[in-house]
Amino acid sequence: MEMDFHFYSACCFLIIFSKVSTAIDTLSPSELLTDGMTLVSRNGNFELGFFTPGSSENRYLGIWYKNIPMQTVVWVANRRNPINNSTGMLKIESSGKILIQVQNKTVVWSTNSTARVQNPILQLLDSGNLVAKDGKDSNPENYIWQSFDYPSDTMLPEMKIGIDLRTGFHRRLTAWKNWDDPSPSDLTYGIELKGNPQLVLRKGLEKYFRSGLWNGNGFSEAPNYRSNPIFDYDFIWNESEVYYIFFLKNKSVMSRLVLNQTQSERQRYAWSPETQTWKLFAFQPDGNCNKYGLCGPNGNCADEVPACQCLTGFRPKWFERWNSSDWSDGCIHSKPLNCQSGDGFIRIGKVKTPDSANSWVNKTINLKECRAKCLRNCSCMAFTNLFVTKGVSGCVMWFDDLLDIKHQSDGQDLYIRVSASEAAERKKKAKVKLAIILATVIVALLGFLLLVYHLRRSRRKLKDEVEDNNLNDGEDKDENEDMDVAVFEFGTIAQATDSFSFMNKLGQGGFGPVYKGTLANGQEIAVKRLSKSSGQGPKEFKNEVKLIAKLQHRNLVRLLGCCIHGDERMLVYEYMPNRSLDKFIFDETRCTVLTWSKRFRIICGVARGLLYLHQDSRLRIIHRDLKTSNVLLDSEMNPKISDFGMARTFGGDQIEANTNRVVGTYGYMAPEYAIDGLFSAKSDVFSFGILLLEITSGRKNRGFYHSNQSGNLIEHAWRLWKKGKLLDLADEFLVETGDLSKLLRCMHISLLCIQLYPEERPSMASVVLMLGSDNELPLPKELGSLFHKKPFEANSSSGNDESSSRNEISSSLLEAR
Ligand SMILES: *[C@@H]1O[C@H](CO)[C@@H](O)[C@H](O)[C@H]1NC(C)=O
Ligand SMILES: *[C@@H]1O[C@H](CO)[C@@H](O)[C@H](O)[C@H]1NC(C)=O
Ligand SMILES: *[C@@H]1O[C@H](CO)[C@@H](O)[C@H](O)[C@H]1NC(C)=O
Ligand SMILES: *[C@@H]1O[C@H](CO)[C@@H](O)[C@H](O)[C@H]1NC(C)=O
Ligand SMILES: *[C@@H]1O[C@H](CO)[C@@H](O)[C@H](O)[C@H]1NC(C)=O
Ligand SMILES: *[C@@H]1O[C@H](CO)[C@@H](O)[C@H](O)[C@H]1NC(C)=O
Ligand SMILES: *[C@@H]1O[C@H](CO)[C@@H](O)[C@H](O)[C@H]1NC(C)=O
Ligand SMILES: *[C@@H]1O[C@H](CO)[C@@H](O)[C@H](O)[C@H]1NC(C)=O
Ligand SMILES: *[C@@H]1O[C@H](CO)[C@@H](O)[C@H](O)[C@H]1NC(C)=O
Ligand SMILES: *[C@@H]1O[C@H](CO)[C@@H](O)[C@H](O)[C@H]1NC(C)=O
């Protein structure tokens, strides 16, 4: 009897359990979702159903996170039309229309998309997106309707906030009225199109916060967000659309951006599994200076006391009020303008550029033309260059008062209109300052450290006020201002490296040997002693170093400075204690240090670093020599790409897309580059593919031998792929201990990257997405025949490099057979 009972309850438990675990994520026209029932997305991330917010008694249809204890609603359907009992139900009609009815008749909410499909279904996706689509459509992304198009107060990863410029359709966030009432309040956040598009947080008509200009890499609002561990973001602006979007760097982290009505803030939260709470990660407006227009017209805000100052060339409109910290009236020109007889401009460095509501944008004019245009139009008060994504530089002009400017260490330059006499005066002052600095320099020669210190300080001061007379183009800066990169004395370097002693030699990279050094202050450095044949003058070289030093990303090795000694050139980098990736993955014992999860992190890091070089940096660099020995590892095994910008620096004529001098390393070179000398970002994608293959297999592409198979690693990989046995190629250690599906996914991606034709390879942007998601991957095309082409004749004078290129140029991809 008792046995029976146990058996029975066990059965019951099983039944209930299996019911729970087979929760459905779709609804078809023949089904109803009544109050109390829910849809659950496939991986159990999100749940859709009726809920009651706070202490309200109303029922709403909404979506919330499924697997956290705190109910966190991210979307509400009938936010304007609550249901006051539990007779609500959701359905999708065979026309594809979605509606919520009460009591089986009154419609309280419905979609009105006119698109019709054969087999409409409603599905809750793991992204938190509720979509209506044709259940039998082979393209899973042909939505006829999606909740991501109608955001409530929450922005989830992969959701767009912005405007479809073809239809004028807006997607913006609107806060809940309060904790109990999801109906729309007056706090909104979206992109505004006047002049240069920017994100604006508004309460009613009043602006609370705005993002500032998109500078191709980030908003001037948010300086260091790129390197945050949680999310990455993008801003797209082309003929068809303008939007802001963010992606999770780690899919298992939960992060959302939400409008908070009571605080009138835009807040970003991340879920903390340890404390089981949402952690406030960032919020805006944060700090005085992000409050819209705090300093009034033509004021400049800084995080100091008092917060507001007039822009250079301006004075408070009312001194008394200004002196008592009432800044709302702002500032006026201290000397009246005289447009007809000619005004001038002063450059203000490092600011968040003014509100673009009364601005004008042209994506094709350069800075010089921009200045001329602004000078001609008497109501133009300021101009600067606009960084359109992908390194294109344009022009922005502002009319009338300049609003909401703040000082920001990584902000942009702004050129503001002042009277001719004011401009002349500034110039004189700047010259005097320069003279003072020179004097200081002479005096300070006595103490080297003191000198460096002084220079930096005075440079920073100068930057705000020096008039810029020789505008050439967007990247023109004057000499005094931008030496963020140190020029080391030869003696310092020689001492640090013990006169380049053999003991300190770290290795022989492309372009020359590398030495470890320790500066007098204890800092460890790596010094690359460049081979002598670059033929670059010291000035050219310094300029190039400055440009390269501006490329900063957590996955790039930081260039600290350079050293010039006679005709010798040296580059000084931060030192990476764990040396390079090849020292681990190809080493029988050390390979176990890099577990699969570490390797995956390395892969993602390298991909992001490369993406930055290709797309996000202002220079758009193609690396051209990506390989395991160029991926360095810091003390925490974070990957950092080295040797970037070298081809640019030493290539000269190689900036062109076709070159007769090939740099790079065989085995990693894309066929079109190795054979025809053609390169593009896609050639780097190829090298990345090889890198990926090597990291996952633990074998070198060059020098790969298989006992009874002929061919190189690539051919071997392709053979195994065709047999559906790609995993056989993977490092056994990884197969035993790693996440097999991810491992296989990475190998799959590597095959996509090493396609013969560059246009068939994904961009690094897609690679980063593929690595970060679980979406289905396209199938790679046949790889077989490509590497049978004859290698090109070795007329290459790769010149600078002994070990990595020239010796290997005579060998080839085929050599390994
Ligand atoms: C339930 O509420 C809806 C509106 O919220 C109303 O139209 C309907 O009559 C109510 N039904 C009952 C049984 O109270
Ligand atoms: C629910 O709302 C309907 C009208 O929408 C109203 O007639 C009814 O009295 C309400 N019921 C309750 C319990 O508030
Ligand atoms: C709703 O009405 C339809 C027909 O009008 C009926 O078949 C169905 O059973 C009703 N559903 C509920 C839950 O009352
Ligand atoms: C539905 O159609 C109306 C009128 O055409 C339009 O104003 C409204 O924005 C549409 N609503 C949705 C949710 O598409
Ligand atoms: C605009 O950018 C989006 C996203 O990169 C892209 O899908 C779309 O094709 C672009 N449209 C145009 C007209 O370039
Ligand atoms: C992703 O986040 C989870 C949970 O915070 C963590 O356990 C995991 O190690 C992270 N994965 C990566 C690749 O960083
Ligand atoms: C709004 O922000 C405050 C302060 O950060 C927080 O305590 C509160 O819970 C937030 N409200 C909502 C609805 O998230
Ligand atoms: C305001 O402060 C400035 C500088 O501190 C001073 O020169 C000026 O006289 C003050 N004006 C008034 C009206 O207090
Ligand atoms: C930008 O300026 C160029 C050159 O003056 C002009 O041809 C083009 O039409 C302008 N574009 C816009 C959008 O005004
Ligand atoms: C100056 O620019 C503004 C805004 O584009 C324009 O409305 C005005 O006509 C221009 N004035 C002149 C003199 O070009």
Can you tag this structure with a few keywords?
817 residues, alpha+beta, single chain, disordered N terminus, eight-stranded mixed β-sheet, 17 helices, binds 2-acetamido-2-deoxy-beta-D-glucopyranose, 24% helix, Agglutinin, subunit A, disordered C terminus
Structural write-up:
There is one protein chain. The chain is of the alpha+beta class and 817 residues long. It has 17 helices and 42 strands. The strands form 10 sheets. Strands 26-25-33-29-34-31-32-30 form an 8-stranded mixed β-sheet. A 6-stranded mixed β-sheet has the order 35-39-40-38-37-36. Strand 5 and strand 6 form a beta hairpin. Helix 9 (596-616) packs antiparallel against helix 12 (681-697), helix 9 packs antiparallel against helix 16 (764-772) and helix 12 runs antiparallel to helix 15. The model is unreliable at 1-21, 460-483, 650-661, 705-709 and 785-817 (pLDDT under 50). It binds 2-acetamido-2-deoxy-beta-D-glucopyranose (10 copies). Residues 339-419 form the Apple domain. GO terms for molecular function: ATP binding; carbohydrate binding; protein serine kinase activity; protein serine/threonine kinase activity.
Write a compact overview of the structure shown:
This protein has 17 helices and 42 strands. It has 817 residues and is an alpha+beta fold. The strands form 10 sheets. An 8-stranded mixed sheet has the order 26-25-33-29-34-31-32-30. A 6-stranded mixed sheet has the order 35-39-40-38-37-36. Strands 1-10-11-12 form a 4-stranded antiparallel sheet, with no helix packed on it.
